[in-house]
């Protein structure tokens, strides 16, 4: 596109639907992870005061990047939300934020906090009464499972995500025939909550789309096609992105450019999920726990989704009773949840210990031995090695570890008090009670209990699997090329492994009847 054309495309974005982030969100600690996901997807942004429509920035028309994220050397991390600030305030006014009460002091308060859950706040217990369980730990495990099934996506939600991504993908291909859109993050790992955003990346054959002009072009194109509203363009970050809301589904979407580390991470996380029973359940519980306390947003020092996954994975992989097969995690989710809160709320040595996931094997690593972590400005901080890059501390933006630790400790206290109390109670007194109640809160729309992931394929997962299969085939071919000086072609095809039908693919036949296959979600071959 000519310079004039570019200016035109940038001008066409100039309305109040487009905002540019001016604030780098850097702080004195140098934590500059930008989350940028507004806490309530249905509310207009509250950031209007610090941002302005494109037209108010004359620099833009000269093609100058105005975003002041230039020193951002962190990954742009993303989060989810379905709870509004209003709801949160109400919750605090109502005094239903019992964890705060529990944390505030004496045991009497803690006890009071633990005994007065309002059943309406805990919809996952509706028609799911486990009060007859002899073992209180079994009751808690069943309640964890109920919550997971309550929060898991139903058929309509999965289709909506598939369709939404299908539309964005088609628009990307229309704009750039040599480019394709891939999904990573929680949608590609089935670890999303109802309000979670979708993380995508555009990769092209030319590898030339990560620049300001391309970001504008894509934003303009999406807007023109009615696929994007509330657009933010964050052009000058270490990971430049476009953020927007797809108007039909109201799903928040983040698009980054020309990188595959997120796609690699999605594959790895799915492998962890397959090999680690209980991982999905505990991750979703912890996500919801932090989300309801506004502690999941990396932008404000919270713990992001990726860090939560690594934390829970390492916890389960090193849990003494799990690794010795003394307990089956799926039958002991309640105990494991309490153990998790105890470890990271009370016992973990944040000052000295880092979590390593090098070579896919979780272990504890003395911080002094992690070279890239130094110099350490604040020793009381969570440090988790990126499984894809051991130099990267994925939780370096989590500067509010103090509150996170307190919240975990409070949850441990509440759960243990509640378990003790209900264990002592008569069966008749237990009916309709919740154990998890005050720990997990769900303030979103009323949901059903339908986890319908087995009925509708998550196409982001299929597509990610295909992406990796194609890559490994290309790698095989490259390897052969090396041995055969690039020839002969015939030999190459002989050595190709027979096509395997993946687990997901075989599931496909079972669920065909439920699929909506016409949503144009067909990744291109590279
Ligand atoms: N600090 C980081 N360093 C490197 N990669 C990161 C970092 N944070 C996020 N990522 C990448 O982005 C992906 C999405 O991260 P995110 O924290 O949004 O988790 P998520 O699983 O999508 O959770 P959520 O549903 O809360 O958005 C991760 O799987 C990872 O590939
Ligand atoms: Mg995400």
Automatic annotation (TrEMBL):
UniProt-annotated stretches for the region Disordered: 1-58, 73-96, 470-526
GO CC annotation terms, alphabetical: cytosol; nucleolus; TRAMP complex
Record domain PAP-associated: where: 332-392
Extent of Polar residues compositional bias: 42-52
Cofactors that this protein relies on: Mn(2+); Mg(2+)
GO molecular function: 3'-5' RNA helicase activity; 5'-deoxyribose-5-phosphate lyase activity; metal ion binding; mRNA binding; poly(A) RNA polymerase activity
Basic residues composition-biased segments: 489-506
InterPro entries in alphabetical order: MTPAP-like_central, NT_sf, PAP_assoc, Trf4-like
EC numbers for this chain: 2.7.7.19
The keyword Metal-binding belongs to this UniProt entry's keyword annotation: yes
Range of residues in the leader sequence: none
Domain spans labelled Poly(A) RNA polymerase mitochondrial-like central palm: 141-272
Family: Belongs to the DNA polymerase type-B-like family.
UniProt-recorded name of the protein: polynucleotide adenylyltransferase
Naturally occurring in which organism (per UniProt): Huiozyma naganishii (strain ATCC MYA-139 / BCRC 22969 / CBS 8797 / KCTC 17520 / NBRC 10181 / NCYC 3082 / Yp74L-3)
């Amino acid at each position: 596109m000519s310079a004039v054309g570019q200016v035109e495309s940038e001008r066409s974005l100039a309305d109040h639907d487009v905002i540019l982030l001016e604030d780098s969100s850097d702080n004195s600690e140098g934590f500059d992870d930008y989350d940028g996901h507004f806490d309530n997807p249905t509310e207009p942004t509250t950031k209007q005061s610090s941002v302005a429509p494109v037209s108010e920035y004359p620099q833009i028309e000269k093609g100058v990047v105005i975003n002041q994220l230039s020193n951002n050397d962190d990954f742009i991390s993303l989060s989810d939300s379905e709870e509004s600030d209003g709801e949160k305030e109400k919750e605090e006014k109502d005094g239903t934020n019992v964890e705060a009460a529990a944390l505030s002091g004496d045991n009497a308060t803690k006890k009071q906090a633990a005994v007065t859950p309002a059943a309406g706040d805990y919809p996952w217990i509706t028609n799911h009464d486990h009060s007859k369980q002899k073992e209180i730990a079994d009751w808690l495990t069943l309640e964890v499972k109920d919550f997971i099934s309550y929060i898991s996506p139903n058929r309509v939600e999965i289709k909506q995500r598939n369709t939404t991504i299908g539309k964005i993908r088609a628009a990307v291909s229309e704009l750039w025939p040599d480019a394709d859109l891939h999904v990573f993050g929680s949608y590609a790992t089935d670890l999303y909550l109802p309000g979670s955003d979708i993380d995508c990346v555009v990769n092209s054959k030319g590898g030339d789309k990560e620049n300001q002009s391309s970001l504008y072009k894509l934003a303009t194109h999406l807007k023109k096609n009615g696929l994007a509203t509330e657009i933010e363009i964050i052009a000058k970050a270490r990971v430049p992105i476009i953020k927007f809301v797809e108007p039909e589904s109201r799903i928040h979407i983040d698009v980054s450019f020309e990188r595959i580390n997120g796609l690699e991470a999605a594959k790895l996380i799915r492998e962890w999920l397959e090999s680690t029973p209980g991982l999905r359940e505990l991750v979703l519980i912890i996500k919801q726990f932090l989300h309801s306390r506004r502690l999941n947003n990396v932008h404000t020092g919270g713990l992001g989704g990726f860090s939560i996954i690594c934390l829970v994975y390492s916890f389960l992989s090193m849990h003494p009773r799990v690794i010795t097969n003394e307990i089956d995690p799926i039958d002991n989710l309640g105990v494991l949840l309490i153990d998790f809160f105890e470890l990271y709320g009370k016992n973990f040595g944040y000052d000295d210990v880092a979590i390593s996931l090098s070579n896919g094997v979780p272990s504890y690593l003395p911080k002094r031995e992690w070279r890239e972590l130094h110099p350490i400005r604040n020793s009381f901080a969570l440090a988790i090695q990126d499984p894809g890059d051991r130099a990267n501390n994925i939780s370096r933006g989590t500067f509010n570890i103090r509150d996170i630790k307190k919240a975990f400790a409070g949850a441990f206290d509440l759960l243990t008090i509640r378990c003790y109390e209900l264990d002592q109670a008569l069966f008749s007194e237990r009916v309709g009670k919740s154990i998890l109640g005050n720990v997990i809160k769900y303030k979103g729309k009323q949901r059903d209990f339908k986890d319908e992931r087995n009925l509708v394929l998550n196409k982001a997962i299929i597509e990610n699997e295909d992406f990796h299969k194609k890559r490994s085939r290309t790698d095989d071919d490259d390897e052969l090329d090396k041995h055969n000086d690039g020839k002969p072609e015939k030999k190459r095809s002989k050595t190709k492994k027979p096509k395997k039908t993946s687990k997901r693919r075989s599931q496909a036949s079972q669920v065909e009847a439920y699929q909506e296959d016409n949503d144009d979600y067909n990744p291109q071959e590279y």
